[in-house]
Amino acid sequence: MSSEHTAPPPVGRGWCVDCERYVGDAMAVAYAQGNSGPGKVLEACVAHAREYAALWFAPQWLKDDIAALDAAERSSTYEPQKGHSPPSQSGT
Ligand SMILES: [Zn+2]
Q1: What is the pLDDT of residues 32-51, one digit of tens each?
Q2: Residues 6+ apart with CB under 8 A from 78
């Protein structure tokens, strides 16, 4: 167990389960339990990962990962993409 959890999660090329395509900024959003053997890691792009983290049933580690990403974005070592805007949603 680590005393701090401030490092952003590894983000790289992977399959976004929401975009249903390979993206360059995929990160783990869920760990599916298999009947036997190792569990399967579900990945999503950062944009979708943020949406998952905002859900009430999102695991705490995912919220922490997003918080760490946000902290990294605010630091000078990370260059945020221009023209970033949240996806349009139809209010329910
Ligand atoms: Zn996505």
Answers
A1: 877 777 788 999 999 999 99
A2: 72
